[in-house]
Fold this sequence. Notes:
This is Transposase. The protein is 92% helix and 0% strand.
Amino acid sequence: xxxxxxxxxxxxxxxxxxxxxxxxxxxxxxxxxxxxxxxxxxxxxxxxxxxxxxxxxxxxxxx
Length: 63
């Protein structure tokens, strides 16, 4: 009985599964990074709005 053909049949499937798993992982990581970047942009925008409000308040109070 020769087990080589069985291994040769399962190896491409195993490799294919590993490649697909890696692709899914990369997609998940990329989506996570996009969410993080959106949150950082939102945080920066809120800081900019707060600074603008502070400047406006200071200007109005100095009149």
